[in-house]
Amino acid sequence: MPITGKANDKKHRTVVKPGVDEELDTMKQTYDGIEDLLNKTSQSIAETVPAQYSLDLNVIFFPQIGFLISIPIDPETGRGNYEGDENNGGAWDRIFSTRSRVYYKDFRMRELDETLGDMHPLQELTVPSYVSNDTFITGGEGTSDGAVEDQPCMLIMTGPNYSGKSVYIKQIALIVYMAHVGCFVPADAATIGLTDKMLTRITTKETITKVQSGFMIDLQQVTKSINLATHRSLIIIDEFGKGTDSNDGAGLACGLFEHFLGLGTERPKVLGATHFHEIFENGFLPPRPHLAFGHMEVRIDMDAEAVEDQITYLYKYGHYEAGILALCKHQPEEDVRLKNEAELHSCAAMSGIDQAIVERADRLGLLSATGEDLVFACANISKGEEEDLMMAERTARAFLAEDLRQYRSGASDSEAWQDPRTLLNQIMNAV
User: Fold this and answer.
1) b/e burial code for range 121-147 (CB count within 10 A of at least 16 → b)
2) Residue 273 contacts residue 312 (beta carbons within 8 Å)
3) pTM score, whole prediction
4) Is 75 left (phi over 0), alpha (psi -120 to 50) or beta?
5) Strand, coil or helix: what is 84?
6) Type and span of the H or E element at 60
7) Are 171 and 135 a contacting pair, CB within 8 Å?
8) Could you give the CA distance from residue 422 to residue 415 in angstroms, rounded to a whole number?
9) What is the C-alpha separation between 158 and 283, in angstroms, rounded?
10) Which of 87, 102, 216, 275 has the fewest CB atoms nearer than 10 Å to its CB?
11) pLDDT of 406-428, one tens digit each?
């Protein structure tokens, strides 16, 4: 067994023996040697600071935050006893403080972060790579005397299924929440204003305890957002309007977005995701300084043999400029059809849907997009299906033409229905 008993007793957990996996051995050596690394780094930095501060200087490591220099706090100033100087790489950046110590980063700490990495181990276990994305929105000015700047307070996103729209807007909400409870924010830099509440229309939680449809629950969530929102609120709207007719849903979504945009200095910060492409194609929400449009980037290759390879998700946020939106409205119909076809095929294939079902759905979707009658289209049958129906009809008519009453005369109940079955078999064999 590839388990070392001594290490088990010491660490009180299962430990894989060295030599089983080279990459695992390297990671364990790095992890086991981090204490020595911190001590050596502390000694190196201590040589560059005034002697009176060097004895109480430490270098520590926090997951997600990375490597930090720790210095005792000055009770009178609330700052560290030493914060770097221009002769030794510049002033240190203060990260956070406790009652007794202040924690900083300098160029040496950032080099360690880049060399050893500060990605969360859970993230490393679940995703092969992580695509970082920027965000910029700002709410209204409220009752302040400052002028309202022409900056976006609303971001509306689109993109195919699986492209990462919902994850993008949810992670922004999580980062805002983490910042307000004092947690580390996983970003290179972040400026997050005070937020009084986060209001969402993300998931529809249906229950049999209330006589409410899913769409009614959606409307109630949106109503609460409208009534409670202020210029310091963050609102997340994910796929609102999909619970009703597509035309009505697109109209409701546009009406909701227009309402928030029309609140002037009380505009909240709004992040929305939608599949109603007609909003973009028909210009239902005209571009303006306070409104930004975005999408999650994908790459389409219609020549790929495997269906799941026809579309590649990049999980990268892209910004729509006003000029690009104008071009979208005049995009050739064939390009739109090919794009939608690739997205449909890829999403369905990755979900395990049978290829025949996907192709049938794509044909009907194309017919619907071109205004064809789906009832008539669904009524069309293949030549083989038509022959089977004709044979079934001839069999039924031949059977109905027989007088079954003659088979009951002079026969017992057990024998009464034997002859009709025999007759039916004869008819089916004849047909």
Assistant:
1) eeeeeeeeeeeeeebebbbbbeeeeee
2) no
3) 0.56
4) alpha
5) strand
6) strand 58-62
7) no
8) 11
9) 14
10) 87
11) 665 555 555 544 566 777 777 77
